[in-house]
Write a structure and sequence with these properties.
alpha+beta, Structural Genomics Hypothetical 15.5 Kd Protein In mrcA-pckA Intergenic Region, Chain A, Alpha-Beta Plaits, 3 domains, nine-stranded mixed beta sheet, globular
Length: 238
Amino acid sequence: MRINKYLADRQYASRREADTLIERGLVFINGKKAVLGDKVEENDRVEVISVEKGNRAYFAYYKPVGVVTVNAQEGEKEVKDITRFPEKVYPLGRLDKDSEGLLLLSNDGRVTTALLKPEAGIEKEYAVTVDKDITHLFLKRLQSGVDIGGVNNVKHYVTKPALVRRTSKRTFDIVITEGKNRQIRRMCSAFGYTVTTLKRFRIANIELDDLTSGTFREVKGEELDEFLKNINVRGVAE
């Protein structure tokens, strides 16, 4: 797929914003500076060069239900339409319109590059509510991996093993290390369950804490240092 669509699909920037990054010479494919129209293959290494270290910013944001991360369609609102951040930042990863909770934003291209790697394996934890009582077999199947159908060029994609803990008759927490489109909803649907609420409350060591819907806080200090270490990125001052 084209490089601007690749970055947009991973919720790093809109296609127009991706084109701007490419024109500024900040995007590389396999170590070579990308140009508009370049295509990305499945095993290619994509890098986005960071802004100057003195201007790096990192925020934890509570995305409300009904708001899209980027690439809003007519009648939709995206994060940048409803929230103003002190710095120009981009979402790191995706959280679909019907879901709520933790979204990280930054202008540090090193972090984007690290998270774009297929082998990144960063833990993301969610609280899930479904439409009927949960069975032990359902939870066991979620843990072992689920065929969620087509993903990119794979007709039958099986999710990686997950950690699952039931919290009530119809709710459970789940930890996954990948982020396919609407993955948890598709995992539940495969066994006849419909997700009624989905809230992400942790990414690696960063948690929502006391954030309320539509608010954000800066990620800094020891919390930031640990996060960068988790994703194999050197410290903020480097």
